[in-house]
Structure formats: structure tokens, C-alpha cells
Specification:
Two copies of one chain form a homodimer. With 655 residues, chain A is of the alpha/beta class. Chain A has five domains: 106 residues, Ubiquitin-like (UB roll), CATH 3.10.20; 73 residues, Roll (Ubiquitin-like (UB roll)); 143 residues, Domain of unknown function (DUF4445) (Nucleotidyltransferase, domain 5); 160 residues, no CATH class; 104 residues, no CATH class. Helices cover 28% and strands 22% of the residues of chain A. Chain A is built from 17 helices and 27 strands. In chain A, the strands form six sheets. The first copy, chain A, has a six-stranded mixed β-sheet with strand order 12-11-10-13-15-14, sandwiched between helices. The first copy, chain A, has a six-stranded mixed β-sheet with strand order 26-25-16-17-18-27, sandwiched between helices. In chain A, helix 10 packs across helix 15. Chains A and B meet through helix 5, strand 7, helix 6 and strand 14 of A and helix 5, strand 7, helix 6 and strand 14 of B.
Chain lengths: 655, 655
């Protein structure tokens, strides 16, 4: 990957497909999508007369043209207030261009409702336009099979195999057939139509036969089971196109917000494992149903699913007790990839479909990390690359074409808003960007969907801390600056101190949205965990491989990684001090890795090969961990020399 | 096979294990079994003090010693009347020896109740004492697996694989694990005992893990699904011993006695296929349960089943509609062997167990025929061999190490007693041997279990017809001899004629047991079908291969094949005119083939290789069939020159 986020370009991010486009002023979003071969449902072809192409601008609406007459006709005032536009009408104002170029991406973020989507699949992470070549594990054939005669009484299945070989569709006789398909075969062969369609899994087993000639009803679904969110990508395996994207909150959150509380739930409740497995399977079935409805695809024609998730999600999905992941030495039940039948897991796709679960690396570095590596190709980079996947868990990968190491840091879920007084997920009403005026400590902010603020999400928290540092509201050790306590934005009661980000008269709750001293500590611990984790893996690589290894570029993965301001993540010392144009926001790379494995089975081999290359570093048990973690708690770090570019820190008090 | 049934030996047949022993006078049955390494349950070790070794003499009890005091103590008078003896007390009287030697085998037949059986497995068909070498598809290992540590945090499954490789139990890492086993593995590995037992299927998949060191609880079951009877052999896969034999009437008989009526049932009843499949699966589960109870084996430790049956039984067992087998060109849905999981077929053994169904040859030559070939090794004989499997269907095999052809003849089930006025299965009260005095037409007979006669079974029917021919009661064309109608044994009413075998005052029903003209026709058709079928296959082989091919030996397979008098089968022209010592009764060879495949997986490959060698001859559609069949309806055949040894026929009128 070699992604240049030059400041001379304006980026338009489409979600949830995590597609970033470069936009030219006066070109409609619809056209920009079309130019990138992303077709969306529109009856009028972009003329503004059907009103179908509704999208929601979540960020940067101020840089767009005003709603057109066509939009005023098809959208209600409330929709307009909430940022809804027609993709064929919305465009960037020419006069916004210079201002936009000064901002780091994403400058404009647009929500593309999933039912609009009928798009060609391209890789999020690539500016080279690299496509994954199709080499799916499921193939569909339409063949004509002659009826048997007394002189040629070859049994049904053997006649089918013979025809497949004759047509060069398979090259040997060693093909099995699933029992359910075998039961269907005789009557399908004897229908009046001679052509039938066969579905072959892994060049080994015929798993479906149908009475038609339609080989293009050949679908797979790639699913990323996040601790918090589950996303499914319904993909046609013959053309590689995404037919639908569908997502849900992981219903396991009801049993515990992070993996440790879920493990504890399984431990403490006799039926806990079943409950958690049932919850995730039900969620997957609901995602599958939604995706199928959107794309008008029969779930029975989904013949494969590829699954990524962290090790605990992996175990719970497969119904394996994850308790040992939570206990030293934190080993999973299995590392390699697994292939089971859909019916064994009660997934409501074709019962004979293959469920391919990507391999995990260790107890706290799961199949999602394998997905990130596959999608971002860290293992093929020339330059040593740091990738961090910022989700409910924090995974760190450092590598290039020579070395590859991973570890997990107890980043907690502070950056997802947990354990933060006014923290929240990135949903409507979340403050996602913050600016503080150092002179009067006045705060300006934006919120998701432009709703009244009700809390602060991760990118807002990082902005807040960075801005509070710049305004000297907090010291490098994270303590509030007592000299400013008389500012109206401070609430000080005994030892309890808060800094108000949004005053109660501005908020949706009628309460201040503020950050407390404890909140700052949580964020310090989270960012300290990432940085010290990175340091420990680097120490390991240097001692084991080359002394002079140096990180040259950074990939920020995860939906969250896409939305934080890079310079602020660096400013608070969460990531090393590299130029902004060496820091890439690569989106949901874990889910992308699952898509790659679905579209091209060679990626599965690659994943297994990676297991031999990857070195796992158990960060928290390393001798130097306490010292590294303590030093990294400082903003940006106790050792300022690690962040030479941040000269402003010379003015910020250490304590 | 090279089985010499010399008339100088006395044979003792044990059923249902189909084991034939050569017996010496004054040696107890118990001792004879022990000498052949067949252990039976006995507490006193053959001293006659425990009364456990009860067996039932079904044939030839008149040649044995009188019941001893010990037997009078342990057996009721009714039991003694019904032929029950203690195996440790019963022996052949010395004075019977010369008389016995004059009779063809089986001279003495003994029922060995299945709960007595705990026997070493030996091959029924071999006088060379050849054993099948053990090479089962399921292996059990007991291994010790070290706990993981922080320095060696290998996941559970990978640690297990590593240990198996280190211990040279497997030679590569490409082993899968079933989902249910994977779910059990972590907790079993963490129990205090370090040793665990793993079950490996086909060197590919771990299908069980247990917390013990017992590798010998490794069982398989070979099942012969006959149209009428189902037999299961529970075999230990580590020592090859049969632990239990269990059998049941095929409950599908309730839906139709032969395969054609069952196909019709499926055709005419919407739910017919399910009903018939459920019936056979329930029967198998009942056989499995009985066998497990007898042998005190946990059904969960049965890891494989091998199945034989004709093509219709094969389809119904797998839940495949057999309708096309009944329609020209009579092709089955699949020919090759199949492997499905027990759970897919609802068989109540280990859910992950493999169900291996042997391949079928054609619509009317099924997996049972493959079993017969494997067990009798026709394909390895030097001499051209005719094998006929006389069950509800008649299969014909002709072959040697060069050629191999099969066909099926519509023998009907006359020889099983169907369509015969007083026909019945070989059960208690069935007349099984018949002699007719040519001077006064008086009849002597024996019955199974020495009960009052209630009908005639197959061997009795063959005896009856042969004896009626010898006594000139019927002509070579099968018509009753009107000159004898005034004999008291004839009942003549208008055109209806019967010949009384057992008079009503002798029978258990109070009615005559007799044979009608129509009964004679049924038997003519059955025997004519076998002989003409054999002729047609021979014609085929001669035209296709060598002109001067000649049948040199005959194998009679099937339980029934074991009980008919060879010379009478030949006398009525059911089988070619070969010396008695070239005619071998090989018992349930189909079931034996299933046992071979269970004990040694190489036999499965052999079966698949056979498919390439076997030529299938569609007998009934051959041009010459009508002529051959019409000629073969005569006793022994229209062309007497085919039976040169039967000079007596010169005296029997043709019509």
C-alpha cells in the first residue's frame, strides 16, 4: 500500500462501505460514485426526477451547495435539517475548495444507505486501484446431461461427473456430493429441461443442484464479528460485486461490553456459552436476512461465509468456551482456520454452505488481525509499518516483508466511550470534532448527524485532550491546570474537577457534556497502552532481528481509526511521531480481509502462511512493561525526544 | 476360496454367525468352539455347573447324545423338546458318525444365542483359516499433552497435533477436528489427568476426545440391510473381534415384501420415502442398541458403520427416492461408495461417526453383491466361478481373475416362501427337508426347531420339487402326473390339484401343508430365472471374452443358500451340473463383505476398483431371454444334455 493523503485533495468518505473518493467541485456525488464504478439505485439516472438517491451528509455539509429545488421536492425539511441530500444534486461548492484542502481527511463524510448500494467491489485501501482477482471457493456450472439408456445405464451421479469432466469443468472423478443434493439429483435430472445448474464447493463436493441455467446466483457473505458491531457484506462470487451491506449492534453487548466481561459471564452462568452463541448466531441470521432482502437474493444461494472476529468472538461464534483465553497463558482452543457446514452452526444460508473462519493468532490477537494484515498487506511492505486496529480491543501489528509481530494492548474501550462520564459510541449527537480557543477556553465542536450533543465519541475525546493540551488546560501528566479553575468552563467540587465541552443549554440532554479528571486518566491509559505496546514490540523486533529497525508508516484500522484526526492522535502520543502523509486511515480492514478470503481462496492459504511468519508478543507480561506504560502515560510521552516535531510541548507544563 | 466339502467330514453350522466347524464325536460343542477360538460366555468353563451355555439344535438333534443330568437340571422339558442343549454337554454320538458322513452339509445346525457370543472374528468362507488383517479407518490414541505456558502458548488443538506428530501417531499437520470435539477439547486438556484419548477418522479428522487412557473402546458395526432381514455385527476395531451380532426383520416388509412393491409404495404415497427410510433407520438403531447392550459397549464409541444392501435398500437407507430403479433403464442415483456422518442419517452411534455405504453396481445389483464378491473373492479365483445370492432378489455373479460379470434375475421371492400357498420363511415349524418314497408317495420331513409343520420354507420347496420329480409326481414340464391322482396325497378339484406334504393331523394348523400346481410354476420360474440368467451372462462373456469359458465351481450365498440341499438345487436345474464338491455354501457373504470393509479399509478401495472390472448384464432385456427362460423352465432344462450327470431324468416324462 502506498496511499498519499496529500493536502491538495478533497476526500469524500462513503460509509458504511468505507470508500474514499477524491472529489472535484461541481461534480455531483452521484457522478463521483459513477466515475468510480460504484452504481447506486436511481431510476432517473441522476436527473433529479426520481428522488431515490437519498444520502445523509454526516460531516462537512457546510462545504456543499444549498439544497436544490429537486431536493426540496423529495426531502422533508426535517430530512434536510438532518443532512439528507440527493446524491445527484449534492456537490462541493467551488468556494469551499481551498478551505477544505487545509483540513485533513475525511473532510466530508456521507452515509450511503445500504439499499442504494449495488456496487462493484473495489478495495478501500488502494490508491493504485488494485482489485482482488476472483478465485472463489464456490463455482456454479450449467450443464446438459443426457438421459441414461439401457445401453448406457450410468447412474445419475456418475453421469453428472462424466459430463463435468467432458466439459472440462472438473479434472478428476474424486468429487463428493452432499446427501441433500444427492437426494434432489435424480428428479432434477429427469425434468424436461435438460440443463441443470450444479454448485461445487472447494472443487470437492457438489452442494447444490437446481433446475435452471442460472450460474450467477452464486453468493457468499463476509462477516466481521466485532465486539460491538457486526457487519456482513453480501458478495456475488461470479462478479465480485457487493450486493448488500448489512450491520447490527452485537447483541452480546447485553451480556458484557468487552470480551473479558463476556468471558466472565460464560464462567458464571451455566448456560452462558449457549446464550452468547445463540445471540451472535441470531444476529448473523438477521444480517443475512436483511442483506438477502435488500439484494433480492435467496439465502439458499449463499454457499459460503467467511468470518473474522477477535479470538473471543471467534470462540463464541463456534460455541467454544473462551474461558482459557481469559486465563494465563491465554491460549485459544484452536489457531488454524476452520471449515464447518452452515447447518452445523445453524446459519440460515444454504445448509451445505461452508463457513470459513479465519485463523486466530493468540488469545488476544484474533482473526480480525489476520484480516487487517491480509487487507493492508503489511507483510509485503518495504517500509516497516505500524498498524493499530482500534476497536473495543487494541491490536498492534508491526511488520514489513521481513518481520511481522503482533501484540494486544489492554486499551480498554475508553476510545469507544466506555468508562468516560459522557462518553458514547459514534452515533447521532456524539461530539466528533472539537476545537478549543486557548485565549478564552471557548469550545467549538461538531456532532454526528448535526444533532444536539449528548456525549463525546472517540474522535472527539482525542480532539478534546489534544486541544486541552494546546490550551494548557491539562499538563503533560494529565492533571488539570489549577491556575485556570476560575474559568467558567471548569466545575470544581472538592477534589472533583470537570471541564465543560458543551454547556447544558446547548445539549440534547439538558446536562453539561464535560470531561472529568478520571476521564483524562482513562484516555491516558488507553493511548499509553497503544504506545507502550508498540514500544515493546519494537524492542522485541530490534533484539530479535535488526537493531536499527524504525517505523516508517502507520496504518490506522477500524471504523474508528478512519475518523480520528491523525495529527491529534499523534499529538496526544497515541502513535509515533511521523509526518501526516505517512499515516493512513485504512477503514474496516478486518472486514476487508474477510471479503478477500471470500472472493479469492488463495488468501486463505496466505492467512495460514502468515501464521508461520507472525511472532506474537505477550506485551503485558514483559519485564519492561510497567516502565514503558508509565512513561507513555505522559502526553505525548515522558521522553519528549520521541516526538521531535511537537515543539509546542516545550510550553506545556509537565505536571 | 477353495472349500472342500468332503463327505468324510461332519459339519456343525453355528448360526447366526454362519460359522461352520468340523466336529469330532465325543467332543462337546463348547470344546469345538473353543478349539476354533470362539469364546462363549460360560461361568463354569464348560463343567456343566452354571447352565449358561444354552444353544438350540435346529437340525440333526437325532445324531447327538441324550441330554445329560446337568442339562435336565438347567433346561425345562419344553426347552429340551425344542432342541435346547448346553453347549458343554452336547456332542455327536460316535454311532452317528458314519450316517452323518453320508449326508451333505449342514448335517447339524445350532443356534448360538447372540448374548452367548464374544468371539474372535474369523472368515466363514475359508478353509485355509485366512484372516482379514486389521487396518481400520478409525484409530484411537492415548497421549499425554503438556499444559501451555506463557513461553509456549500454543493453542489447544495445535498442541494436540504437535504431540501426535512427535509421538509418530500421525505424519502431517493436515488433520481436522469435528466441531463437537473441538468444543470438548479445552476442558478435557485441562483436567488433572494429563493423558487423553483421541479418535482419528480416516487419518483426517479427530472425531472424539475422552478423558481416559482406554484406546480399546474403538468399535464399528457392519450392517447388512436385507429386503427381509437386517443383521448387524458389532466389531472391535482394535482386535477385530465380534462383540455382538444382532438382527431384526426389516420393518419395511410392512410396506411391501419385495423391492418392487416398496418402490410402488414410495411412488403412491407422498410421505412414502420418509416412512420407509424412518423404518429402516429405526430398525438399525434398535439393532445398534441391542448389540451395545449385549456387549456392554457405549454406542458413542461406535465410530464407523459399513452398510451393504441391494440398490433399493441402499437408496431407502440414504433417503434417496428409488423410483428410477424401477423404471427402464433402471439406473440408481449413485454408484460409488458414500461416506456421510451418523448425525446426517440419525444413526444413534457417535454423531461424528462415518457411515460408509458400499457401492452398488446397477439398479438390481447392489452393494450386497459387492459384499459377496469381496468376501468370496470371485475376482481372484483361478477357476471360472458362478455365485448366486439367493435372497428376496436373485443376483448372479460369474467371474475369475480375468472376467467378472453380474446380472439380476427376477427370481421373485418364491424361494423365501412368497406366492407359495403354504410357503413361509425359515422359522420354527417350517418344513426344511423332505423325502418322498417313490413306491407309495409317502412323505417324511423335518421342520425347523422340530415344531409341528405350519408351512414349507425355501430349502423344503427345493427338496419337495426334486423328490416329486424323482417320484414322477410331476413331469419335467412341471405338470402333475394324472396317473397318480388316485393316491391319497392328491387333492383334485376340477382343475385345481394339490399334493399333500404334511397331512392336517400332523400339522400345527390343522390344515394340510401341500403344494399346488401354481406353486410348482412359481418354483419353476424362480429356478428358471437363475439358470437362464446364468446362461445369458455366460453367453455375454463368451462372445465378449473367450469362447470356451466354462463354469468350474459354484458359490451359493445368502442364509438360504446355506441351507438348501446342493444336489437338489442341481437336480431341479437351478444351478449347473457340477460335482457336489465344487458347490460351496458360503453363507451371508454380503454381510461378511461389510465386515471386511469395516476391519480393513483397503477393501473399500478394492470395491471401487471392482466397479471398473465388473460388467453388468441387463438380463431381461436381452433378445435371447425369452427363449432361454422358457427352456430353463423345464426340469432340469429342456436340453437334458446340459445335465449329463442326472441320468435318472431319462425315466421322467417330459410332459
Amino acid at each position: 500500500m502506498n496511499m498519499k493523503n496529500s493536502n491538495n485533495k478533497v476526500f469524500l468518505d462513503f460509509e458504511p462501505i468505507s470508500r474514499r473518493l477524491i472529489i472535484t467541485p461541481l461534480k455531483s456525488f452521484y457522478q463521483a460514485l459513477l466515475d468510480s464504478n460504484i452504481q447506486i439505485n436511481s431510476l432517473c439516472g441522476g436527473k433529479g426526477t426520481c428522488g431515490k438517491c437519498k444520502v445523509q451528509v454526516q460531516k462537512g455539509i457546510e462545504y456543499l451547495n444549498d439544497p436544490t429545488n429537486s431536493e426540496k421536492k423529495f426531502l422533508t425539511q426535517e430530512e434536510l435539517n438532518n443532512g439528507w441530500r440527493l446524491a445527484c444534486q449534492a456537490e462541493v461548492k467551488k468556494e469551499s475548495l481551498e478551505e477544505l484542502k487545509k483540513l485533513p481527511p475525511p473532510q466530508i463524510r456521507v452515509y450511503l444507505p445500504e439499499d442504494l448500494l449495488l456496487e462493484d467491489f473495489k478495495i478501500l485501501t488502494s490508491s493504485k486501484g488494485r482489485k482482488v482477482s476472483l478465485n472463489p471457493n464456490v463455482r456454479k456450472f450449467s450443464i446438459e446431461i443426457e438421459a441414461p439408456t439401457l445401453d448406457d445405464p450410468i447412474p445419475d451421479f456418475e453421469r453428472t461427473i462424466k459430463e463435468l469432466i467432458k466439459s472440462n469443468l472438473i479434472n478428476n472423478e474424486n468429487i463428493n456430493i452432499s446427501l441433500t443434493t444427492l437426494r434432489k439429483l435424480p428428479s432434477i435430472l429427469r425434468n424436461k429441461k435438460k440443463r441443470i445448474t450444479l454448485t461445487l464447493l472447494d472443487d470437492k463436493e457438489i452442494i447444490d443442484c437446481e433446475l435452471n441455467e442460472e450460474i450467477n446466483n452464486n453468493f457468499g457473505i463476509a462477516i466481521d464479528i466485532g465486539t460491538t458491531t457486526i457487519v456482513g457484506y453480501l458478495i456475488n462470487l461470479n462478479d465480485g460485486k457487493i450486493y448488500a451491506v448489512s450491520s447490527l449492534l452485537n447483541p452480546q453487548t447485553a451480556f458484557g461490553e468487552d470480551v473479558i466481561t463476556r468471558i466472565t459471564y460464560v464462567k458464571d452462568n451455566e448456560n452462558g456459552l449457549n446464550q452468547l452463541q445463540d445471540a451472535v448466531i441470531r444476529a448473523l441470521n438477521s444480517i443475512i436476512m436483511k442483506a438477502c432482502n435488500k439484494a433480492r437474493v435467496s439465502a439458499n444461494q449463499i454457499y459460503e461465509a467467511t468470518i473474522v472476529g477477535n479470538s473471543v468472538m471467534h470462540h463464541l461464534f463456534l460455541g467454544i468456551n473462551p474461558i482459557n483465553i481469559g486465563l494465563s497463558p491465554y491460549v485459544p482452543a484452536i489457531q488454524r482456520n476452520t471449515n464447518f457446514k452452515a447447518k452445523e452452526l445453524n446459519l440460515k444460508i444454504n445448509p451445505e454452505a461452508n463457513i470459513h473462519v479465519l485463523p486466530v493468532i493468540a488469545g488476544f490477537v484474533g482473526a480480525d488481525t489476520i484480516g487487517v494484515i491480509l487487507a493492508s498487506e503489511i507483510h509485503e511492505q518495504d517500509e516497516l509499518t505500524l498498524a493499530i486496529d482500534i476497536g473495543t480491543n487494541g491490536e498492534i501489528i508491526i511488520g514489513n516483508s521481513n518481520v511481522l509481530a503482533t501484540g494486544s494492548c489492554a486499551a480498554g474501550s475508553a476510545l469507544e466511550g466506555s468508562h468516560i462520564k459522557n462518553g458514547m459510541r459514534a452515533a447521532g449527537g456524539a461530539i466528533d470534532t472539537i476545537k478549543i480557543n486557548p485565549d478564552d477556553l471557548s469550545v467549538s465542536y461538531t456532532t454526528i448527524k448535526n444533532k444536539k450533543p449528548i456525549g463525546i465519541c472517540g474522535s472527539g475525546l482525542i480532539d478534546a485532550v489534544a486541544e486541552m493540551l494546546r490550551a494548557k488546560i491539562i499538563s503533560r501528566s494529565g492533571s488539570f491546570n489549577k491556575a485556570l479553575f476560575d474559568n467558567e468552563r471548569f466545575i470544581v467540587k472538592d477534589k472533583h474537577v470537570e471541564f465543560i465541552i458543551a454547556k447544558k443549554d446547548e445539549t440534547g440532554t439538558g446536562q453539561h457534556v464535560s470531561l472529568t479528571q478520571e476521564d483524562i486518566r482513562e484516555i491516558q491509559m488507553a493511548k499509553g497502552a497503544f504506545y507502550s505496546g508498540m514500544r515493546i514490540i519494537m524492542n522485541y523486533l530490534k533484539s530479535k532481528h535488526e537493531k536499527d529497525l524504525e517505523i516508517k508508516q502507520i496504518f490506522l484500522a477500524g471504523a474508528f481509526g478512519n475518523y480520528i484526526k491523525k495529527e491529534n492522535a499523534k499529538f496526544i502520543g497515541m502513535i509515533p511521531d511521523l509526518p501526516d502523509d505517512k499515516i493512513y486511515q485504512i477503514g474496516n480492514a478486518a472486514g476487508l480481509g474477510a471479503q478477500y478470503c471470500l472472493m479469492n481462496k488463495n488468501y486463505r492459504k496466505k492467512a495460514m502462511t502468515l501464521l508461520n511468519k507472525i511472532e506474537y508478543v505477550e506485551i503485558a507480561t514483559k519485564q519492561e512493561f510497567q516502565k514503558e506504560f508509565a512513561e507513555a502515560m505522559y502526553f505525548p510521552h515522558m521522553k519528549l525526544e520521541y516526538f521531535p516535531s511537537l515543539s509546542i510541548y516545550k510550553e506545556i507544563p509537565r505536571r
